[in-house]
């Protein structure tokens, strides 16, 4: 260590390593920008989800007072995505996928939840990607990978659970849409519970493949999703069994439900 | 038992929705939790509850079938279609990964073979003959990397998606190539030379700079042992040459702005290699074992200190 201090100028590899330094610096800068954007997007998405949990109707446009709250957060999200879009082109899309996936998943959770509240449908990956890339140049698009989409939906099941239980406690029934997009009355046999079941069934039966990171994340989230379904089922049971005895504002008792959930109620 | 429960819940939920058509059933349902809560919930009452449920669920099932609500999954066909697509996509990427891993395993066994031969340098076998065998293996490696590139060509733009599957093996490959190159020429194997040797220079499939640098760090780990054994075998000039090389290398690495990552850790290890080589050089020099003719080289080193 001591003998070479100050003698660096003589190393014949200096100039080559200067090239490596530039390359590595750019790589680290891109990565850090993605990590930062991912964090900002996650924070804004969480706030959107909180606001959306105040919605009490299913199958109609988000009330204006709530969409006014969420709009600035959407603006933040889209500008964060736009800022890192150049870093996620070509080969780099997969290079930094792991750094941006957190934000993408949380964004998926937010928009799929909003989409569900408005339409009682699960947004498709293509539709989600189109929404994310609205107004972006073709050469600066950001892809939502299958993995990001699926992991985002996993998280969304937790929001459906919260929404269903809060609704049961305040309105007194399992939420379901009663109007179509144009406001006409529809006969609807689907409820949040049946949709939640269907979604968790689809997620559970999907083979997560050989990607180690994805398989690990998916299996962790599956546990939480199963708990969410279970909670809503218990709540429905409680509502049915003790429905007429229920005082106003009564909340279903979930005290014996498993407690180790990540996104609990 | 569990499916029966699920069925029951499912049907309850449907009953819940518009208007309970079966007041009798519901009022009966009301009575039973009071039974189990008024007494301590014994196993018998629990069992009774479960049995009741099962029979109830089938009754309710019949009702709802009659109501025409029991067609299997109600939900959107688009969701089902999507998940089928995902299944196909994940399966495809899985089989691609399997093929990548198969090639990588061959790369790994080739490098093990090369390493086994290269380890003989520590037994002071003459270098040129010794290098013949591992050099022949470079062609094998090139062929294997070509196969990897062909597999990757099926999914353009996804080099970094699967990068983790060949990273550490490639780092080992670089370290072996660089060590051999150094034994032959006494200088560092350049990034582009490494790419050339592996045939990675004209496609999307390149040699990642980080992998190259980590491989060079691995190579430096090999040097102290080499010096020790060379000195033991009577080559007293070796420490000076190695010290010069590793000093240059270490100085070059210090140009990099490293983050707290794997490369940083490996680079931190390099200073111990440097220190060990310095100590050997000192040992040899202090005992006057260095050959007379290398005074020029000696000044070179001193010029740096």
TrEMBL record, chain A:
A Pfam family the protein falls into: Translin
Gene Ontology CC terms, in alphabetical order? cytoplasm; nucleus
- Give the protein name, as stated in the record: Translin
Organism in which the protein naturally occurs: Carpinus fangiana
Q: What protein family is recorded? A: Belongs to the translin family.
Q: Does the keyword NAD apply?
A: no
Which N-terminal stretch is annotated as signal sequence?
none
Chief location bin: cytoplasm
Q: Where in the cell is it found?
A: Cytoplasm; Nucleus
PANTHER family in the record? TRANSLIN AND TRANSLIN ASSOCIATED PROTEIN X
Molecular function via GO = sequence-specific DNA binding
Keyword Nucleus in record: yes
Q: Which domain of life is it from?
A: Eukaryota
Instruction: Show the taxonomic lineage.
Output: Eukaryota, Viridiplantae, Streptophyta, Embryophyta, Tracheophyta
Q: Which InterPro entries match?
A: Translin_C, Translin_fam, Translin_N, Translin_sf
Supply the alphabetized keyword list: Cytoplasm, Nucleus
CDD domains found in the cross-reference section: TRAX
Automatic annotation (TrEMBL), chain B:
Principal location listed in the UniProt entry: cytoplasm
Source species, domain of life: Eukaryota
Listed InterPro entries: Translin, Translin_C, Translin_fam, Translin_N, Translin_sf
A GO cellular component annotation in the UniProt record: nucleus
* Gene3D superfamilies assigned: Translin, domain 1, Translin, domain 2
Pfam families (alphabetical)? Translin (PF01997)
List locations, semicolon-separated.
Cytoplasm; Nucleus
Q: Which GO terms describe its biological process?
A: RNA metabolic process
Is Transport tagged as a keyword? no
One MF term in the entry's GO annotations: single-stranded DNA binding
Q: Which UniProt keywords apply?
A: Cytoplasm, DNA-binding, Nucleus, RNA-binding
Which protein family is it in? Belongs to the translin family.
Matches recorded under PANTHER family: TRANSLIN AND TRANSLIN ASSOCIATED PROTEIN X
Q: What is this protein called?
A: Translin
């Amino acid at each position: 260590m001591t003998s070479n201090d100050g003698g660096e100028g003589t190393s014949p590899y200096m100039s080559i390593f200067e090239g490596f330094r530039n390359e590595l610096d750019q790589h680290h800068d891109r990565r850090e920008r993605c990590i930062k954007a991912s964090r900002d997007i996650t924070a804004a998405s969480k706030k959107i989800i909180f606001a959306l949990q105040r919605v009490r109707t299913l199958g109609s446009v988000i009330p204006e007072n709530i969409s006014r709250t969420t709009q600035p957060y959407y603006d933040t999200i889209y500008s964060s995505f736009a800022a890192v879009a150049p870093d996620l082109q070509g080969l780099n899309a997969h290079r930094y996928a792991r750094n941006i996936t957190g934000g993408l998943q949380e964004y998926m959770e937010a928009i799929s939840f909003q989409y569900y509240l408005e339409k009682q449908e699960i947004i498709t990956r293509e539709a989600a990607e189109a929404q994310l890339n609205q107004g972006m140049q073709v050469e600066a698009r950001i892809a939502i990978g299958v993995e990001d989409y699926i992991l985002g939906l996993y998280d969304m099941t937790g929001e459906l659970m919260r929404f269903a239980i809060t609704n049961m406690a305040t309105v007194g029934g399992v939420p379901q849409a009663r109007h179509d997009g144009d406001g006409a009355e529809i006969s609807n046999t689907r409820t949040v519970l049946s949709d939640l079941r269907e979604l968790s069934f689809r997620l559970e039966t999907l083979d997560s493949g050989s990607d180690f990171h994805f398989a690990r994340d998916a299996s962790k989230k599956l546990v939480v999703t199963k708990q969410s379904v279970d909670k809503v089922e218990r709540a429905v049971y409680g509502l049915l069994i003790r429905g007429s005895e229920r005082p106003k504002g009564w909340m279903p008792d979930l005290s014996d439900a498993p407690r180790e959930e990540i996104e609990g109620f | 038992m569990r499916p029966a429960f699920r069925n029951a819940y499912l049907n309850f939920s449907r009953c819940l929705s518009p208007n309970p058509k079966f007041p009798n059933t519901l009022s009966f349902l009301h009575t039973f939790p009071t039974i189990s809560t008024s007494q301590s919930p014994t196993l018998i009452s629990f069992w009774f509850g479960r049995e009741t449920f099962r029979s109830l669920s089938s009754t309710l099932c019949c009702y709802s079938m009659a109501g025409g609500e029991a067609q299997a999954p109600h939900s959107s066909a688009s969701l089902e279609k999507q998940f089928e697509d995902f299944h196909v996509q994940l399966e495809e990427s899985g089989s691609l990964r399997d093929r990548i891993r198969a090639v990588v395993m061959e790369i790994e066994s080739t490098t093990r073979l090369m390493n086994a031969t290269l380890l003989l340098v520590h037994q002071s076998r003459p270098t040129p003959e010794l290098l013949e065998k591992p050099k022949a293996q470079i062609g094998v490696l090139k062929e294997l990397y070509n196969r990897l590139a062909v597999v990757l060509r099926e999914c353009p733009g996804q080099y970094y998606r699967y990068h983790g599957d060949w990273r550490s093996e490639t780092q080992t490959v670089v370290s072996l190539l660089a060590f051999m190159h150094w034994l032959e020429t006494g200088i560092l194997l350049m990034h582009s030379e490494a790419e050339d040797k592996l045939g990675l220079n004209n496609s999307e499939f390149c040699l990642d700079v980080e992998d190259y640098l980590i491989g060079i760090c691995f190579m430096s780990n090999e040097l102290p042992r080499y010096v020790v054994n060379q000195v033991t075998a009577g080559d007293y000039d070796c420490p000076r040459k190695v010290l010069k090389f590793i000093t240059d290398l270490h100085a070059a690495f210090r140009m990099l702005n490293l983050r707290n990552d794997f490369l940083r850790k490996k680079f931190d290890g390099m200073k111990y290699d440097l220190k060990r080589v310095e100590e050997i050089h000192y040992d040899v020099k202090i005992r006057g074992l260095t050959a007379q003719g290398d005074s020029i080289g000696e000044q070179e080193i001193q010029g740096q200190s």
